[in-house]
């Protein structure tokens, strides 16, 4: 048992089942909107969930976030809290995914730490890499953390990644750092939901500033984003679907016959003339041409800071954090069956959506966007009619040091970004999310089926 323990949550009565909300219709209907159509202004609150209100954390008793009436949460996995393996929880919580393990939920969580030393052993780079992943085991019936431990160490700037259909986590390094001893970073690492990763980089999946991945379960094709400008939207064609270590081919999306910039494309823009160009050298070294420049030279499309990615509703959802006419973010939908890419939303202002980053899809088909702008930070929902609404707000102000057995300091953290939103996959009764600084993981439950999520 972990030395970090949270009290049980008074569970609400929640209807079972994971069917999409028929009353809302498929989110795919968003793709039918006309090019240049303005997104609806942000609603003050979810049309079905209701207004946000200060809500107490059932671990600390503090009002860390606001939520609609009927929702509640517990916090755990704070920075510096003691894990079951005797190590302290690293800081900078980021991307995350949830996996069912019988009656329990396993969370694999990134830590976006750059310089070393490594926080655990064995480590890919023991001296110059302090990032990696931790795994947390949560009991959804009791609302309690059961266990936590290090699962990948010696990597740098593990920002996002993505779950695989075969039940592992892909953790992505958002850097191309080369350590003094020549160890290269900028790779994807596979992490099991039980035990520790072998720490072997999946070099065929490219060396660049990786952000996130998502996988088409029908083909095993992996889609990858790059946090840079210009960035490419990549796909990895594995030699053996489900066994990424066997290698494969890395490709970059092209739109039309010449390289196209999508930076300013508005809501409703749809691209149908899509193709994929092969990246000849997916693992470039110092002084060699980067993957994105290789792709652009062949006509690959250019995006502005591609970050979040998630597979849901039989398609890939991709976030450009600073794209769109207002540079406040775009959400793309890629449908591999029709080979179309559509701008679902291009935020017209920071008041509507302020630089979204991580994205996830609930078992019911609803989209959650993690905001990473400036000022107040929200978790947003997206309805089938294209309406954005705030679901939760970060209101973390800590009155004292070392809360929840952590090493965090008192202070105001309301400007810290949301990361790693993910639903437990069996029935979606719990959503998990991180507040990156001071480093807190939250488990939220309530009447999801009342609304779009």
Give a written overview of the molecule.
The protein has 453 residues and is mainly β. It has a single domain, classed as 6 Propeller (Neuraminidase). Helix content is 2%, strand content 38%. The chain is built from one helix and 29 strands. It has one helix at 291-297, and strands spanning 52-55, 65-68, 72-76, 93-101, 104-111, 131-139, 144-155, 158-163, 168-173, 188-192, 210-215, 222-226, 234-238, 248-255, 270-271, 274-278, 306-312, 315-320, 330-335, 340-346, 356-361, 367-371, 378-382, 388-394, 397-398, 411-412, 418-423, 430-435, 440-445. A six-stranded antiparallel sheet has the order 1-2-24-23-22-21, with no helix packed on it. The protein has a five-stranded antiparallel sheet with strand order 11-12-13-14-16, covered by helices on one side. A hairpin with a 4-residue loop joins strand 6 (131-139) and strand 7. The radius of gyration is 20 Å and the shape is globular. It starts with 51 loop residues before the first strand and ends in an 8-residue tail after the last strand. Mean pLDDT is 91; it is low at 1-36.
